Amino acid sequence: MLTLEGKNALVCAGSSGIGRGIVNILSEYGANVTTFSRNIEKLNIVKKEVKEKTGKDINIIRGDLSKNKDIVEVVESAHEAFGGIDILVMNYGDPKVDKFINISDDEWKYSIDMMLLSTINLIRMGIQDMIKKNNGRIVLVTSMTTKNPLRNFSISNTLRSGIVALGKTLSIELAENNITVNSISQGFFYTDRLKNIIKRNSDELKITIEEATKNIENEIPMKRFGNPEEIGNLVAFLCSNLASYITGDNIQIDGGVVKSI
Ligand SMILES: NC(=O)c1ccc[n+]([C@@H]2O[C@H](COP(=O)([O-])OP(=O)(O)OC[C@H]3O[C@@H](n4cnc5c(N)ncnc54)[C@H](OP(=O)(O)O)[C@@H]3O)[C@@H](O)[C@H]2O)c1
Is ligand 1 within 6 A of the CB of residue 93? Predict the structure, then answer.
């Protein structure tokens, strides 16, 4: 049976969309969840939602993934609330979507700090507890852009592939500590970010929001967007004992969008 009872999870960027879905599902399976983002009001809504659904109190703290000082405070908060970290789920904010030529050094640097450096630092801190317990789970929630780079997504395409490569490397190094490291390459999930992308496409192509929505849905063999809780279910499985022999993998969850074998 899939259970995460007694496991302490740290989920990044949990105030909306995919992160919120993961927080909800891990809590439903019994994990003690700490989550953070830049907006405490949005986090409070998720806290209330989880309490109503599961009766559990998640631990929330304001924190910006791009600031190392915040990340250190988040890890301290997870320790104070639940005594450690058994599960680390890296999920991220928005890298800028634009033509390569329009992206400045500062925009690259923000995303490198927010996505790549935060992953390096959170894993470095998170594995201290996992090594002591000789058990742990790390899941890196990236994007289908790791398999199928998209136009105007140069930051996402570049950094997420680096994150998948880091995960593969660590899966080899940490296997002796019984720590699994896997990544997820998700397709189109109906969140605020996707709504912004649809709006941008609609403006650029001078078509309606409905037409821009249909254009993307038609690219998906299952003809629908994913629901963030569907990613939550995959994360819960990877973090459970049922997935004890799966490590170093990069799993697609995309309704069939990516066609490579
Ligand atoms: N939705 C999709 O179809 C899709 C597909 C592939 C990849 N992705 C990627 O998946 C990730 C999550 O996207 P989503 O669709 O769930 O978008 P979303 O609904 O806009 O959620 C983004 C989350 O990131 C948080 N966040 C943003 N910047 C942050 C920062 N600097 N530090 C901490 N938290 C930060 C936001 O919270 P606050 O505003 O409270 O900080 C929010 O909780 C993104 O990296 C996105 O690019 C999404």
Answer: yes
